[in-house]
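TL;DR need structure tokens for one chain.
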Amino acid sequence: MGNTIVVKSALALLLSVSMVMPTSSAGLQPGWRFAPPPGITITQSKPRHALAMQANMTVHPMYLRQVVQYPTHESSGTLVVDTGAHFLYFVLGDGRALRYGIGVAKSGFEWRGTHRVSRKAEWPGWTPPAEMLKRRPDLPRHMEGGPDNPLGARALYLGSTLYRIHGTTEPWSIGQNVSSGCIRMTNADVIDLYGRVKLNSKVVVL
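>> reply
TL;DR here they are.
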């Protein structure tokens, strides 16, 4: 009697499994027992570049774009870069500002000053200055703009200096001292800022 119950249970289990198993191997991926849901395409390829992976990169919540209280005598439209706190403020007026997280200059490359936005560029090309090439002779002499370019999706050029506020292919560097003097933002944030900032806007770097 006991053996009969065991056999019946085993047959019932096999029947239930056969009902949920696909009747065809079409659509199955290697090592998968079930096909993906309708409308889902599975790919084995890797992202083509760092920008494609950005959605999976995390930025500390404190560096996420947000409107904050920011009393200042600067007029609306001014950019205030607080390098010590790793924040860039786009002054809105009425004691408020739109705050972005940034990456700033590493030790020995810090600077302060007031400039104007002298140029704006989408997907800017990059020509490393001579001083940088002396430190890093492995760098390309020029790199066309695009998703793999270290300047990222947008750039705001500061006066006649070599410095820029630009995007990055390394979003994990936001909140750190990593650059040779430029101000880094995530590509999503620099695109947002780019749309707000006008040429000749005042930029204060603290």
